[in-house]
Specification:
- The protein has helices at about 15-30, 80-85, 95-105, 160-165, 175-180, 230-250, 265-280, 305-315, 325-330, 340-355, 375-380, 385-400, 405-410; strands spanning about 5-10, 35-40, 45-50, 55-65, 70-80, 115-125, 130-135, 145, 150-155, 195-200, 205-210, 210-215, 255-260, 285, 315-320, 355-360.
- It is of the alpha+beta class.
- A six-stranded antiparallel β-sheet has the order 2-3-1-9-8-10.
- Helix 12 crosses helix 13 (about 405-410).
- The model has no long low-confidence stretch (mean pLDDT about 90).
Length: about 425
Amino acid sequence: MGAFTVVYNKNGVPLENGVREQLQSTAAKIRSDLPASFYHQGPILMMSMASGRPMISELAEIRTSAGNKLLAVADLRIDNFSELTSKYDLPENISQVELLLHLYNIKGEEFINELYGDFAFVIFDTNDKRVLVARDHIGIRPCFYYDSDEVFVCSSDLELLFATGLVSKEIDNSMVAAWFYGSLLYHPEQMMFRYVKRLVPAHFLKLDEKGIQTSPYFNWDDISPLKLSSDEEYKKLLMEKLQKAIRNRIAPEGTPGTHLSGGLDSSSIAVLLSRELKKQGRTPECFSWSPTPGGKEYPRSEYPAIREICRHEDISCHYTDLETKHIKAAIRDDITHELFFPTEDIVREKAAELGVVQIFSGWGGDEGIAFNGRAYFMELFRKMKFYALIKATLNRAGAFNENPLKVFYGRVVRFLPPVSW
C-alpha cells in the first residue's frame, strides 16, 4: 500500500531540494519496492509512493481548458468510478486520481459529495494557490497534517510527515496523560504530538489566502432511514452490499488474510472472503487471537465455531500463542504510533512470514452492521428524545435483569463530563 506527502510553503518561497531528498530516502526505507514520484515547483512539493489495486496511490496532473494546472496525490479506491465518468462524460481510461481533478474542475469543492469509497487525497490548484484535503466517510485511509505560519505539511504516513524535517515532534502531555489514565484511547483529531492533527473522517480541509478551514461534507444524521417491506429484503440488500464491499477490496495479487475469532463479525467476513477467493482459485490465510487449542474448553469458547467454519469452508486457522516476550515488546512500543495490542502484533508478524498482503477483519463490526446498541442510548440523549431513552433503559434492564439506574449510568452518565474526564 502506498502513501503520499505534500509540503506547501505558505509564504511562496521555493522549497529547498533537501526536503525532497529526505522524503525520497525515507520512502525507500519504508517500501523500497514502491517507486516514488515527485512534483516540485516553487513552494509546492508533492510525493506519491505509487501502488496499484485495490488501493491506488499515485500523483496526477491535468490542464484545464483555461490552461490552469491542477495537481493531486491520493490513496484511494473510488467505488462509483464508472458511474461518475459516465455522468460527466469523462474518458473511461483516466485514472481514479485524474477523476478527482476533472470533477474538481467541473464542480469545484462540491465534487467531494459525489465520491464513494476509501480515500485520502490532496489537490493543489496552481491558479488560486488553494490546497484541498479530504478523507473518506469513516476514515479508512489515514491523513495527518501540520500547519504553522510558514508551512503546511500533509501526509498519509506519520513517518513521512516527520521525514520532511519541518514538523515538530513535541509531545502533548495532556494527551499522553489521558491515554495512561484510560479516559482517552482515541481522539478523532488530536494526537500524541502537540502540533500534528488527523483530518477527521467525512471532513475536508481548505487552505487559501484566508487561512485554513476544516468542515464536514457529510453527516450521518442527514441520512434518511432505509425502509423496506420485509426482513428478507433487508437481509438480501445487506448481503449484496457486504459481498460487493469485500469483492472490491480484494488485492488482485498476493495472499489475502482475515481475522477469524468465531464471533459473528469476523466469521461472516472470513466466510464471504473465502468464497470470493475460491472463484479465483485462491485461499485466504486465517488468524485468531486465541491461543492454540488444548485442554479443557469453556462452554462459551469460540473454538468450536472456528473449527466448524474451517471444516465447512475448507480453510485453516493460525492461532496466537502470547508469550512474555511479546508483552515486553508491546510495552516498549511507541504509544505515539502504536496501540498496545500484542496479539495483533503476533498476527501481523505471522502474516508477513506467509506473504499476506492484506488482512480483512470484522474488528469493529459491532459498531456497524452487527450494532450492539452501545451508542444508541447516547444518541437518544444527544437528540433529547428522553421518552425513548427511558423506554430503552427500562427494556434493557428488564431483558437482562439489571437495575435501570445502573443501565442509565453505564450507557449515558459515564460518557458525560465530569464523569468522563
